[in-house]
User: Fold this.
Amino acid sequence: MSVSTCPSERHTALDTTDRAIVVATQAGLPLVPDPWGAVGRTLGLTGEEVRSRLVRMQEAGIVRRVAAVPNHYRLGYLANGMTVWDVDDAHINRLGREVAMLPGVSHCYRRPRHLPAWPYNLFAMLHGHTREEVECQAEELRALLGESCRDHRILYSSRILKKTGLRLDGRPGAGRQPEPRR
Amino acid sequence: MIAMPARQSVSATTPAAELDAADRRLINRLQDGLPLVEAPYAAVAAELELSEGELLYRLERLLEAGVLSRFGPMYHAERLGGGLTLAALAVPEADFERVSEAVNAFPEVAHNYRREHRLNMWFVLATETPEGIAEVVEAIEAATGLAVFNMPKQEEFHVRLHLPV
Assistant:
């Protein structure tokens, strides 16, 4: 199996210093008045260099933003539904853009079907305080998709099994070539 | 540095955290991103009419309480040159704990959720290289004895995760 790379994605090369900053901050940014200086001290860089490199990575879209990632459950969003839709391929790109604009949708992607077990090609994550709230949002999606949608499901999450976020290997030389697996 | 739990297991029965008005303003503000300026926490604290010390104290407490799962740069896996995909397994109920442990043991598994469907385990894989995805998929199939449904994104429709509290 291979991954299709989306043609709109730019691959921006990171130098070893950028990469060291990614590894040093991927678990989180230090909670001190000068977080850039704190990261820099662990890497032998000035705070200003760390900050300006993060600015550049943010401008290039490598860093989406430096932000808080909430735990949906602990914020009272107890109903987290991954809604999946079997949408006519001819209209999915236009409809996907419209679905992504609806309030309550946190992520929206086109993904491959796996027929016959999995006919769904549009994924939209919905978050509500109750399942009723999620189902109302799903009704709005259903109305928007109209006749282009053959079927849909709401897959609620019932447990977070792991949530660590993206992790790069911090070992020297990692990331230049695939690591041999056991 | 923030100590991140290696593994969280928050169930749907975990009660919502008690948050005061300042916590709510802080969470809403920081979901939009920290300005990359010289003293970033002081800048946000001034916007929210908090002191810098109070903002840092609250942020640390929200992370410790698990209200925030993380605070820091959100990296775009593909633009880092890596591979990213969503994958699912149909796990027999009796085998769920074993498979869950086997899947979570892979450092490439960034998130893993149990969901209510025949495909009842859904996880995100992030690898150093685009080619790494196929290798990890194969290794997970070997470790679990189950077929992985690999569902890499073909198109991303842009939204911004923002949960008002």
